[in-house]
Amino acid sequence: MAKRYWLFKREADHFDMDQLMKKGKPVPWKNVRNFTVRNWIRDEMKPGDRVLLYQSRTDDPAVLGIGEIAREPYPDPAQFDPKSPYYDPKATKEKPIWYMVDVEPVKAFKKPVTLAEMRANPALDGMMVLRKGNRFSMTPVEPEHWKTVLAMAGER
DNA sequence: GCCAACGTTGGC
DNA sequence: GCCAACGTTGGC
After folding, report:
1. pLDDT at A85 (0 to 100)
2. Which of A11, A27, A28, A52 has the most CB atoms less than 10 A away?
3. Is strand C less than 7 A from the beta carbon of A11?
4. Residues paired with residue A140 on neighbouring β-strands, in sequence order
């Protein structure tokens, strides 16, 4: 299957792009508990897919950099852990419900691409993350939109 | 901090 | 299986 593009959202409180880059290792992107997003993870994400890393719930929400999916999707262990807030009593090891991927940080943009800039760019019309009321923590990104965002960041 | 929007839950 | 109520997301 061809390489795909995604946008992963994370709240500012739990997202430090510099820290990610410094670490330089794949990080688990866990705790997705939305069925639509689960289906994208489980059925469509592949190692090598590229990801826009987006910071939400801040004064200036923005894409801060890019990453790459580092391994096949796998069951989120928290669903089996009764002590976890993400525990799901309906999930079993044989039939997991929730999936996750690891993301390797690839590059921090020198110039983040803000939500305001993205909304102002007609080339990004229809981008899922820009839709009103969008609450998916992960969304697919069209190849043309990917190129546009990278160009806006001054990257190639 | 507010509140619109939306996914999920649960009573019926 | 519907749908109102609830809880959460996330821009502003």
Report:
1. 87
2. A52
3. yes
4. A6
pLDDT tens for each residue of A46-83: 999 999 999 999 999 999 999 999 999 999 999 999 88
The secondary structure element, H or E, covering residue A145 is helix A143-152
A35 touches strand B (CB under 7 A): yes
CA A153, A142, A54, A129 torsion: positive or negative?
Answer: positive
State the pTM of this model: 0.94
Using the structure, give the distance in angstroms from the CA atom of A98 to the C1' atom of C3, rounded to a whole number: 26
Please tell me chain A's helix, strand, coil percentages from 3-state DSSP, rounded to the nearest 5. 30, 30, 40
Q: d(Cα A135, Cα A137) in Å, to the nearest integer? A: 6
**Domains in chain A, ordered, with CATH?**
5-152 (3.10.590.10)
